[in-house]
Amino acid sequence: MKKKVGFVGWRGMVGSVLLKRMEKENDFNNIIPIFFTTSQLGGLSPLINNISFGKLKNAYDFAILMSLDILVTCQGGDYTNVVYYKLRTMGWKGYWIDAASSLRMNKDALIVLDPVNRLLIDDSISCGIKTFVGSNCTVSLMLMALGGLFKYKLIDWISVTTYQAASGAGASYMKELLMQMNSIVPIFGNILHNQNISILDIEKKITNFLNNSEMLSKNFKVPLINSLIPWIDIKMKNEQTREEWKAESEVNKMLSTNKKILIDGNCVRISTLRCHSLSFTIKLNKDINIREINQILSDHNKWVTIIPNNEISTINHLTPLAVSGTLKIPIGRIRKLSIGKKYLSAFVVGDQLLWGASEPIRRMLQILL
Ligand SMILES: NC(=O)C1=CN([C@@H]2O[C@H](COP(=O)(O)OP(=O)(O)OC[C@H]3O[C@@H](n4cnc5c(N)ncnc54)[C@H](OP(=O)(O)O)[C@@H]3O)[C@@H](O)[C@H]2O)C=CC1
Ligand SMILES: N[C@@H](CC(=O)OP(=O)(O)O)C(=O)O
């Protein structure tokens, strides 16, 4: 019998990417979908393959939620915090699949990324685990790219710097970046081709304008265009940001490691629209040659691709623009660092709305059907 699957948060960025992927893979053929809203009650469900699924249901209507076999939410942590515990307390035994971070570290929840931890997923299902959560976007991308090295336990520690797109913070942040882009065009639009105007004068005008335009920075708090923000999320007691804290905590939970793999570094917001990038220094626990490393990495899953360490390949294939909207996980700049034979450098780009958020959840739903 087809399972009743509820979707909350399908209108947001992660949710809409999820729906598109499900439509493409014909996933809706195997379920009875029910679409919920927190704000558009009375509105219509999205058309799936041109089929209508009636009116939207109230995402806080516990009677309907209780009737679901599976609930998939991309609505965010606030929704999860209000609904999840109440639903469980009311005795709901269905599967909860979530994109938000709130439940990740709970004992009775598994963080899922099946190309990396499928065995643990299968074990958890047979042990009666009913709550499955996607990992933080940079964590999923790191694990997809370095999966082979993790699988063969070749990593001592990782130092990572992330370059995270504006859309990672949510739709309103992405809009704010676009508004900032739009606001600086009039400053240089007409004068760019005038040879008599110094480029540094234009730069000064833009910098002055951005430093005095609070109106354009309600979400990010400061301008992101023409700048970057080396701070994402709240501060933890140990001086990390919460985004930085997630890497080591989530990876070790997901891999159920006996010996903790140490991971730390800075998370940085940059002014790309979509796709996160990560720069790694990896301390291997033995000296392996680059050819073997490339083989281990590319054998791990079909999405990871080795980008040869040369300029043309790198600038054409290892950028957010080249990867946006695809499931590709290119990894390049792979070389031994001059500091020692066990120190490896690598650079990874991945679409944080696909492998970073919606794809692990889509695949988890398929596993449960
Ligand atoms: N963005 C990302 O890259 C990643 C996000 N996540 C997590 O996924 C969850 C959802 O994130 P994300 O999709 O970015 O959030 P969004 O801000 O895009 O959407 C969240 C909800 O906001 C409501 N909403 C209000 N106005 C609009 C609008 N104009 N257009 C669309 N939706 C609107 C919708 O709910 P309703 O229809 O009920 O009003 C929607 O489901 C969060 O927990 C986030 O942490 C995880 C990994 C990556
Ligand atoms: N915080 C991430 C996106 C995200 O939503 O992460 P999480 O799912 O861990 O809250 C970013 O800003 O790019």
TrEMBL record:
UniProt pathway annotation: Amino-acid biosynthesis; L-lysine biosynthesis via DAP pathway; (S)-tetrahydrodipicolinate from L-aspartate: step 2/4; Amino-acid biosynthesis; L-methionine biosynthesis via de novo pathway; L-homoserine from L-aspartate: step 2/3; Amino-acid biosynthesis; L-threonine biosynthesis; L-threonine from L-aspartate: step 2/5
GO MF annotations in UniProt: aspartate-semialdehyde dehydrogenase activity; NAD binding; NADP binding; protein dimerization activity
EC number of the protein: 1.2.1.11
One Pfam family per UniProt: Semialdhyde_dh
Cited SMART domains: Semialdhyde_dh (SM00859)
Ranges in coiled-coil conformation: none
Keywords noted in UniProt: Amino-acid biosynthesis, Diaminopimelate biosynthesis, Lysine biosynthesis, Methionine biosynthesis, NADP, Oxidoreductase, Threonine biosynthesis
Active-site feature positions: C137, H276
Domain Semialdehyde dehydrogenase NAD-binding intervals: 4-124
Reactions accelerated catalytically: L-aspartate 4-semialdehyde + phosphate + NADP(+) = 4-phospho-L-aspartate + NADPH + H(+)
UniProt record, GO biological process: diaminopimelate biosynthetic process; isoleucine biosynthetic process; lysine biosynthetic process via diaminopimelate; methionine biosynthetic process; threonine biosynthetic process
Subunit structure: Homodimer.
PANTHER family, alphabetized: ASPARTATE-SEMIALDEHYDE DEHYDROGENASE, DEHYDROGENASE, PUTATIVE-RELATED
Function: Catalyzes the NADPH-dependent formation of L-aspartate-semialdehyde (L-ASA) by the reductive dephosphorylation of L-aspartyl-4-phosphate.
Assigned protein family: Belongs to the aspartate-semialdehyde dehydrogenase family.
Protein name in UniProt: Aspartate-semialdehyde dehydrogenase
